[in-house]
Amino acid sequence: MKVFFKKCCYSVLPQHWLSRFAGVVSRCEVAWFSRGIVRWFIKRYAVDMSLAVESDPLAYRSFNQFFIRKIKPARRPLCAGALSIACPADGVISQMGSIKEGQLLQAKGVDYSLEALLGGDGAQAEPLRNGAFMTIYLSPKDYHRVHMPFDGQLERMVYVPGRLFSVNAFSASHIPNLFTRNERVVCWFKTEFGPM
After folding, report:
1. Which parts of 59-165 are beta strand (E)?
2. What's this model's pTM, rounded to 2 decimal places?
3. pLDDT grade for 50, boundaries at 50, 70 and 90
4. Which of 26, 93, 154, 178 is the most buried (most CB within 10 A)?
């Protein structure tokens, strides 16, 4: 019953309205309000502020500024070596593997289409059809910035409209085609290892 209820909530909630409302709240710079949210969030999600360049929670003017806080460079050193690949984000690798017959693994027993993930253009998906993928889950406490895993040049970006389902272990296991249904931006890079 609990799973059914959660799935219903994901389906009927006004996601875009809630997202806009959360955006307004996260950018609010009223000190007592933003500091209260930041302090609650740090306690609720056990955020390790010793990693942050600015470790004082009261120094952030808004929740958004706190959420995208910078991390001390020494805490996230870059890997050395021409063939090294850096993890592009903090978080947990939820899935990784080979793209098989244009399908990627969303969760145990749940696949999704590479072509759909990239916005529905089969010709654009072709160079990646036999490639590899990695899905990294960022929990609320994680550092929310994304970095290049290796040298590359951005060639284009494609906006793909969609829903705004929360992405977590529950939704990945219970919402079919979660990643292809959600709003996203596909960034195409040219690298020495091939297209990314």
Report:
1. 92-98, 103-107, 110-113, 132-137, 152-160
2. 0.77
3. very high
4. 178
